[in-house]
Design brief:
mainly beta; four-stranded antiparallel β-sheet; globular; single chain
């Protein structure tokens, strides 16, 4: 039995400073173009995941015409359900999910204009986060798990106390929310918008600092792990590093920078050492760069379709960069050699990817309704997690990598236990 569903628009993160340093061509370490054999898709039509509604009315199912804005049909295979529990508290699509630092409490946000907090062990609902007038698209716990932030697509951010289930403070961006990030070490919230601006608030006082690093919609943003600066990317094709203390633009790279993509940027990852970053573009390319100097370390023609998410590994004895794309694949680059080492293939576009905190294991979730666990070194699948009847839109992984919580357009969240066990 197979169920069909329409593919949504590409699941991106919703949505002028100083000039960057000139990058001399001699500063490029190496540029790699993956050959046709690296882009094998197993016979699947990669255009099946091109997303609907980008240019107009939906067309007939199965027709491949992105220029006319027609929707493509993605078939969700009914494989059964190997999850250990299903949370059904939402009444519409569930867009986002997060685990608290103890891996015992889950928060999910959905199209029903709510975020729900619940226990992972028995799926018991602890409290509702309401007061929204639009879909909740971002949820996140602070560094010590005492506070949680919820953000809706229309730019409303509400911070809640986990102890009292009450509202601590409320902020408004005044524009579409593009990303929402807690500071890694303190109670500051960073948020990017569809107008290209960034807002930073201290919690609970609510003092706001405003930044304007881009000329078009922001598509992603992250704090450096050391918490001293933050990086943002945009539809204008630029990567910007900003100091929150001085409001100074420390680095800006764009299409005028040699070997930088001439395409809207769609994905951003920061290495745990805060010295390296990676950006992915709508044209399927990936760039690895040094944060301090802007030097392009590697340029990779990795994918046929948009890069949806990037992730660095951070464990001992391995150093990888993984990219997830709508071309049905996750591709892994060895950062020591700057060579591709493995490819993980799906039946539809891949919405995102996480690395295990210490092991060379990746978790990737897909529009084919599955989340798959892979050995990054070989591309061998360790386990497939299934049960959703629609696209998997987000995924949270426990600190030990054994528990996975996913959420889907089918209106549910699912908990999978012991995923690394044979």
């Amino acid at each position: 039995q197979r169920k069909t569903s329409k593919t949504p628009t590409t699941q991106q993160q919703m949505a002028e400073g100083q000039e960057g340093e000139f990058i001399d061509p001699d500063d490029i370490v190496e540029v790699y173009e993956l050959g046709p054999e690296d882009l094998e898709d197993g016979g699947e039509d990669m255009d099946d995941d091109m997303g609907a509604g980008e240019a107009g009315e939906a067309g007939e199912a199965g027709e491949d015409d992105a220029e006319d804005g027609e929707e493509d049909v993605v078939e969700i295979e009914d494989r059964g359900d190997n999850s250990n529990g299903v949370f059904t508290g939402h009444t519409d699509c569930v867009f986002c999910v997060a685990l608290d630092p103890t891996d015992s409490v889950v928060i999910t946000g959905g199209q029903d204009d709510r975020a729900l907090v619940w226990r992972a062990a028995d799926r018991t609902k602890l409290f509702d986060c309401t007061d929204f007038q639009d879909s909740v698209t971002f949820v996140s716990f602070n560094f010590d798990g005492t506070l949680l932030a919820t953000g809706s697509m229309d730019g409303v951010i509400i911070v809640w106390s986990c102890a009292t289930s009450s509202i601590v403070c409320r902020f408004e961006c005044g524009d579409d929310l593009a990303f929402l990030e807690w500071h890694p070490l303190a109670n500051f919230i960073l948020a990017g918008t569809g107008s290209g601006s960034v807002h930073m608030w201290d919690v609970p006082h609510g003092n706001m600092t405003f930044f304007s690093p881009h000329t078009a919609a922001i598509t992603g943003g992250k704090w450096m792990p050391d918490g001293r600066t933050f990086a943002t990317i945009s539809e204008d094709g630029s990567f910007v590093v900003t100091s929150p203390k001085t409001r100074e633009t420390l680095l800006k790279l764009d299409a005028s920078t040699h070997q930088f993509p001439d395409s809207p940027l769609t994905a951003l990852a920061i290495h745990s050492d805060s010295t390296r970053a990676a950006v992915g573009a709508q044209d399927g390319t990936v760039r690895l760069l040094q944060v301090k100097t802007g030097k392009i370390i590697g340029a990779f023609e990795s994918h046929k379709e948009s890069v949806e998410m990037l992730a660095f590994s951070s464990g001992p004895g391995h150093s990888f960069l993984a990219s997830a794309s709508l071309d049905h694949s996750i591709r892994v680059i060895d950062l020591t050699t700057l060579l591709p080492v493995s490819t993980c293939t799906y039946d539809a576009g891949v919405a995102g990817v996480h690395f295990h905190r210490t092991q060379p294991i990746i978790y990737g979730w897909s529009l084919d309704g599955t989340t798959r666990v892979w050995d990054a070194r070989s591309g061998a699948m360790i386990k497939m997690l299934y049960g959703h009847q629609h696209h998997v839109l987000d995924c949270a992984v426990s600190r030990d990598g054994n528990t996975v919580v996913t959420c889907s357009e089918d209106g549910t969240a699912r908990v999978y236990l012991n995923v690394l066990s044979p």
